[in-house]
Amino acid sequence: MALDSKVPQGPIADKWTDYKNHIDLVNPANKRNIDVIVVGTGLAGGSAAATLAELGYNVKAFAYQDSPRRAHSIAAQGGINAAKNYQGDGDSTYRLFYDTVKGGDYRAREANVYRLAEVSANIIDQCVAQGVPFARDYGGLLDNRSFGGVLVSRTFYAKGQTGQQLLLGAYSAMNRQIGRGKIKMYNRHEMMDVVLVDGKARGIITRNLVTGEVERHSAHAVVIASGGYGNVFFLSTNAMGSNVSASWKIHKKGAYFANPCYTQIHPTCIPVSGDHQSKLTLMSESLRNDGRIWVPAKLEDAQAIREGKKKPTDLSEADRDYYLERRYPAFGNLVPRDVASRAAKERCDAGFGVNKTGEAVYLDFAAAFVRYGTEQALIHGDHNPSAEKIDKLGKEVVKAKYGNLFQMYEKIEDENPYETPMKIYPAVHYTMGGTWVDYNLMTTIPGCYCIGEANFSDHGANRLGASALMQGLADGYFVLPYTIGDYLSDDIRTGAIPTDSPEFEEAEKSVKDQINFFVNNNGTKSVDHFHKRLGKIMWNKVGMARNKQGLTEAMAEIKALREEFWKDVKVPGKGDTYNEELAKAGRVADFLELGELFAKDALVREESCGGHFREESAETEGPQKGEAKRDDVNFAFVSAWEYKGEPADAVLHKEELEFNDIELKTRSYK
Amino acid sequence: MSGFLSSSIGRKVAMALSAFFLMFFLIMHIAINLTSLFSEDLFNQLSHFMGTNPLVQFALQPVLILGVVFHFVMGFVLEAKNKSARNIKYVKNNGAANSTWVSRNMIYSGLAILAFIVLHFVDFWFPEINHKYIAHLPTDPNRYFGELVHKFHSPVRTGAYVAAFAFLALHLLHGFKSAFQSSGMSAKRAVKLETASKIYAIGIPVGFIIIALFHHFNQH
Amino acid sequence: MDMNLKLKIWRQNGANDEGKMVDYSLSKVSPDMSFLEMLDVLNEQIINEGGEPIAFDHDCREGICGMCSLYINGEAHGPDRGITTCQLHMRKFKDGDTIYIEPFRAKAFPVIKDLVVDRTAFDRIQHQGGFISVNTSGNTQDANSLPISKHAADEAMDAATCIGCGACVATCKNSSAMLFVGAKVSQYALLPQGQVEAADRVRNMVAQMDAEGFGNCTNTGACEVECPKGISLDNIARMNREFFKANI
Fold it and tell me: Transmembrane ranges (chain B) (predicted)?
């Protein structure tokens, strides 16, 4: 099947308006007869479910958590971008569009990104109307902060909890519709498969995670909003339950999977402490505004620190290597996430890591204490302050700005970051890749939509900070409700979709067969055992830096691991009760397939772009030596993979990317 | 207003309002009793006024009794309801980690006070009612002080009163500020409330204890 | 450095099972582990011995989703302050300690399995008014056309930091949900957007709270101490005022 992105004709600024003016609509009386399934209730799914129900559709929403409010959108800290230009600093729809395409290293679809920038301002209006308590200044107007990779202040925030507050906004909109009976909410339900009738998505099979019951649910359209797949690495900043299964099930039924190898590795996370580690914790990117990143300049110092013979504060300035400031004098510690992460890995691989595992670098606030302390002393009229006073005043300022993060760090690491530098290391954070969708956010399965982090469309090969929340809400509140109407306008006479058709029968049977297989397999190793091994392969060979040999090996290793998994996995308990191990087994089975496709995608993309760094594709000379080298001639396309059984056999379809409104340039942060 | 008293918050506000009323009564009660420490005449005059004024006798007294009964009945009802809100108890519960003993045991300090009120009624109120309305004994405006002193002759009774006042202090230590919180007072005044609470909750019972001990040791 | 622990954990095979405390011992526990990672290790051990792992709720493991619960040694989210169970680390315990682990207990939070409880009562309370009735349109007024004082916005934010974990209910000797409901009512009561529906909101949410079988508040303040997000008791006072206002 040839890929048709269905991008409307006309100038980029008019596309969305023209599109909305010409689509088919469903009249309110007919909406009552149409059912829509939404899988996932984070920012994208929650906002879509609420809006579709407001419009009059009958919505069934599904979440594996015990409440929609717990979806992992909640963990976003920093903020949400919107081209409001409240600060009068020259922001505009075009500029947000430009920054997003550039930040994504020119691997996103222009028309989608422009539409995202266009509706971004509406998101803020909508959220304020819902009662989201954004930060405000003393005049009572909304406050903004700035984020990495851009030149304006366009990020709206609610303390360090923007994700939770926006999700609670969407959740409250859902609550209103649940109360009215327009949304039927299925908590603790996991989507096990999608059901296609006459080639269209017409329902899903779910498993009730409490009772173990396998259920059939029909609808006229299915929306997948199940988030990203970073947990393929086992260790990531994702929630423990975050999984690829919903996306993978639709992939196996015909939805193409796009750019699986585009992964964002966030530079400021708390390092791994040991084999027992289950999860990594992110520290907001905002810390890099005031923290300086360094490792010891001498190998013997690094060694001594690892062995506990020296402390970081023992090292003089001359013995420290502020490698980001050294390599990128223009942006320094504020280079984009992918650049900062790779630089940390490079130093640690060279033996300069500073914790037991050798995988950590310092994030040091000592200079910020001095800078802020001196400023405060002056403000207080002290022109000759003592070093102690400067230190005390400086720490107070830093505490006011980042106190909660410092406290979180201290709880986890048991070290006082006011006295000794923080240790940080990059961790998997976000996946830009996902299900391929057209301009309508429809996958290659008719009637099956994919929104939010689960789709691939807006962030290219690297996402800018504070843009994930923007995309999730844009898709759910302002894009999908229009585009899905255009599709559903053909279904006003269809009537309710029966669930007793052979298609449902068959889908349910295969789900039950898999459940029975797992609980009767009697293997010897737990699900986590396999998940951890998969994570190790992914991190070592498909992680921050990738090469042909490693990727080829990874594909073979993952395939072998998958075969071992199916032979030897042990799932205790039964299928018809609460069984967390069983739920995990299904998810890991899908990760084991995705992982291989992920490696294959990275292998095929022989360029470096955004979060994807191929060691073979780096600048070999000039001032950019060692930096990522993009190849626009050969790789300015979206890789959309068609499922053909084994992941290794997946067929590549290319959507060529055209850049008419933005000139392709090399990203430079030197 | 209809559902107000059947709602959890309505009941808690009602509990607080009855508490305010009872706390106000305690102030009046102690103010009159304190006079017995220095002026037999003043005490007799005030007691006679309270005992014979029709407004006090037939308006305030029933309201007071109603208030007491309401506070107790509602207290028991809420306690039963609250107990049933946790049908399976914790095997290990460390209440002391997050709350004061007095706040967790209002029902026990309350029961102790109830026992005391029974004793107090037997001691003073029933004889009073008997004197005035049943036996119709002759009016004597100067009998009150003597009766008071006589009652505190017994060390057992005095001891019981002192113990009861200690329980009253425990009850008030939480009850005073709790009533304000229930009636919606902002936490912005929390520090001042804490001080007022301590003064009241310790001051009133200590006052009563002093009165009891004073008369016990100053038998004429 | 590594610790050996005795664990007493509530096991209950489904809602209808009676349930009981079961003893486990676990060795080589690293003080750097989180409490839930310690349970992961225990579960791995149980699975390898052919048993069924202990069910417990958890998801984000960074203290924000509110999914994790557990009553540890008699306290909701364990002995540390200002954190959820997933942020509790084993260094808070000593070698040889006995640790009691129980589910959050309340009639309104029935046990689903082992340490997993059903907290959907909180959702149902919010269905009754935990929202502002505004449709998604893209035509709502410009966000800055409604200035809100920084003070009110900050206070609303403080109330809104509630993660809905239920520690307040679990801790309260009366299993009262008033800190949770108070926080929700407060967030909207403090903002001008919430005024239009204020009276109905507090009436309906309190009615649902009562119908769910939560107990009444007796102002012990335990909820405020155990709340991982430090939600203030003041929110309950504000709800009381709002409720009073709505009913006179």
Answer: 12-38, 58-80, 101-122, 158-176, 197-217
Handedness of CA A574, A580, A581, A582 (dihedral sign): positive
What pLDDT, in 10s, does the model give residues A49-67? Answer: 999 999 999 999 999 999 9
What is the CATH superfamily name and number for domain C3-113? Beta-grasp domain (3.10.20.30)
With the C-alpha atoms ordered A302, A305, A311, A314, is the resulting torsion angle positive or negative?
negative
CATH of A267-426, one of 3.20.10.10, 3.90.700.10, 3.30.460.10, 3.40.50.300: 3.90.700.10
The answer to the question of residue B89 being in a domain is no
Reference C241, options C182, C155, C176, C180; nearest CA is C182
Residue extents of the structural domains in chain C: 3-113, 120-246
Say yes or no to pLDDT of A261 above 80: yes
Residue A254: CA count within 13 A, CB half-sphere: 18
Interface confidence, given as ipTM, is 0.97
Report the run of H or E that residue B46 belongs to, with start and end: helix B40-52
Residues of A with Cβ-Cβ distance to C130 under 8 angstroms: 172, 175
In a domain, B91, yes or no: no
CA-to-CA dists, residue A666 to A540, A630, A663, angstroms: 28, 8, 10
**Which residue stretches of A182-331 are H helix?**
245-252, 299-306, 323-327
Which tens digits make up the pLDDT trace of A12-51? 999 999 999 999 999 999 999 999 999 999 999 999 999 9
SS3 call for A658: coil
In this complex, do C216 and B78 lie within 8 Å of one another by their Cβ atoms?
A: yes
Q: What is the 3-state secondary structure (H, E, C) of A567-604?
A: HHECCCCCCCCCCHHHHHHHHHHHHHHHHHHHHHHHHH
Chain A residues 91-130 with a CB less than 8 Å from chain C: 119, 122, 124-130
For residue C217, the chain B residue with the least C-alpha distance is: B12
**Residues of A known to be catalytic:** 337
Distances (CA, A) of A190 to A7, A210, A584, C23: 33, 10, 11, 32
Alpha helices per DSSP H over B105-154:
106-120, 126-129, 144-151
B36 occurs within a structural domain:
yes
Measured between CB atoms, does C16 come within 8 Å of chain A? no
- A210 and C CB contact within 8 Å: yes
Contact A426, A345 (CB under 8 A): yes
Cβ(C222)–Cβ(C166) below 8 Å? no
Q: Which residue on chain B is closest to C108 by alpha carbon?
A: B85
Instruction: From residue B113, give the alpha-carbon distance in Å to each of A505, B104, B167.
Output: 69, 16, 7
| CATH for the stretch A512-636 | 1.20.58.100
A20 vs C219: CA distance, rounded Å: 55
The verdict on C72 touching B (C-beta cutoff 8 Å) is: no
Of C221, C234, C240, the CB nearest to B99: C221
Residue B220 confidence (pLDDT) above 70? no
Give the minimum alpha-carbon distance from B219 to chain C in angstroms, rounded to a whole number.
Answer: 43
Map out the domains of chain A as residue ranges.
267-426, 512-636
- Number of helical H runs and strand E runs in chain B: 10, 0
What is the topology classification, in CATH, of domain C120-246? Fumarate Reductase Iron-sulfur Protein; Chain B, domain 2 (1.10.1060)
In this complex, the chains that touch C, judged by 3 or more CB pairs closer than 8 A, are A, B
Question: Domain of B111?
Answer: 4-84+102-217
Angstrom distance (rounded) from CA C189 to CA C196: 10
DSSP string, C178-238: HHHHHHHHHHHHTSGGGSTTHHHHHHHHHHHHHHTT-B------HHHHH-TT---THHHHH
For residue B96, is it within any domain?
A: no
Per-residue pLDDT at B75: 96
Q: Identify any residues that bridge with C111 across adjacent strands, giving them in sequence order.
A: C117
